[in-house]
């Protein structure tokens, strides 16, 4: 869908609204060109929490922002921890998983408990490569008002595997090859016991 440019009347209306608006951060208030608005009958004291926040520089409609919010930058994908040759063989589906856990139809709590037990048992048996099948999730209808993430288990599993008690046992987690479930399954490569 092509974006429509506002016409002159709409721009003038927007400028009137912008001139009448009161900035939240009064320290960087732009000078008022039009006549000043009437005094606020209910003045409020400045909020000390708001004063501590860094302010955004003023901008005009249509300008691109040069500032980014803290934490807005995406984190880089972590480097591969395991042997690169084994990693590429695993990604191509050439390594066969030594054990499989299927989480289809489980609730989040039950799946979390099953995953913890499965990984702990696999590590105690000195298994290196296991497969955890989460499924891709149910497809939502296209006319949903609030979009919902597909596959709750699929999105939760990597986080579970990075946190204790499983984090110290897991060396690598990656999406499985199509022959082992594709986007609905994960390879979990475990560390050697010492």
Helices and strands in order, then pairings?
Layout: H1 8-20, H2 48-52, H3 84-91, E1 99-102, H4 108-124, E2 129-133, H5 152-162, E3 170-175, E4 185-190
Parallel strand pairs: 1-2
Antiparallel strand pairs: 2-4, 3-4
Q: If you had to describe this structure to a student in words, what would you say it looks like?
A:
This protein is 28% helix and 11% strand. The model has no long low-confidence stretch (mean pLDDT 78). Helix 4 (108-124) packs across helix 5. The radius of gyration is 27 Å and the shape is elongated. It has a domain at 84-138 and 149-190: Ribosomal Protein S8, Chain: A, domain 1 (2-Layer Sandwich), CATH 3.30.1370. The longest helix is centred in the middle third of the chain and has 17 residues, at 108-124. It is of the alpha+beta class and 194 residues long. It has helices at residues 8-20, 48-52, 84-91, 108-124, 152-162; strands at 99-102, 129-133, 170-175, 185-190.
CATH class membership of the domain at 84-138 and 149-190: Alpha Beta
- Briefly note the structural class of the backbone: alpha+beta
CATH architecture descriptor name of the domain at 84-138 and 149-190: 2-Layer Sandwich
Oligomeric composition of the shown chains: single chain
Backbone CA Rg: 27 Å
Shape: elongated
Find the count of extended strands (DSSP E, 2+ residues).
4
The end-to-end distance, rounded to whole angstroms, is 58 Å
Mean of all residue-level pLDDT scores: 78
Helices, by number, come to 5
**Proportion of strand residues:** 5-15%
For the biggest sheet, the summary is: 4 strands, mixed
Strand order of the largest sheet: 1-2-4-3
The CATH topology of the domain at 84-138 and 149-190 turns out to be Ribosomal Protein S8, Chain: A, domain 1
Region (Disordered): 20-50
Protein name: Smr domain protein
InterPro entries: Smr_dom, Smr_dom_sf
Domain Smr: 101-191
């Amino acid at each position: 869908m092509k974006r429509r440019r506002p016409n002159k009347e709409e721009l003038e209306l927007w400028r009137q609204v912008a001139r009448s608006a009161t900035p939240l951060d009064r320290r960087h208030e732009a000078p008022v060109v039009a006549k000043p608005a009437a005094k606020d009958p209910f003045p409020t004291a400045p909020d000390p929490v708001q004063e501590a926040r860094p302010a955004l520089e003023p901008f005009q409609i249509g300008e691109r922002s040069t500032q980014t919010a803290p934490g807005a930058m995406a984190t880089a994908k972590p480097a591969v921890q395991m042997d690169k040759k084994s990693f590429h063989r695993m990604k191509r589906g050439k390594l066969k998983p030594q054990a499989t856990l299927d989480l289809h139809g489980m609730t989040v709590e039950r799946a979390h408990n099953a995953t913890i037990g499965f990984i702990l048992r696999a590590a105690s048996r000195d298994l290196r490569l296991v497969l955890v099948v989460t499924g891709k999730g149910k497809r939502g209808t296209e006319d949903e008002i609030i979009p919902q993430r597909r596959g709750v288990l699929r999105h939760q599993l990597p986080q579970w595997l990075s946190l204790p008690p499983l984090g110290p046992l897991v060396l690598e987690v990656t999406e499985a090859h199509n022959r082992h479930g594709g986007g609905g399954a994960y390879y979990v490569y475990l560390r050697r016991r010492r």
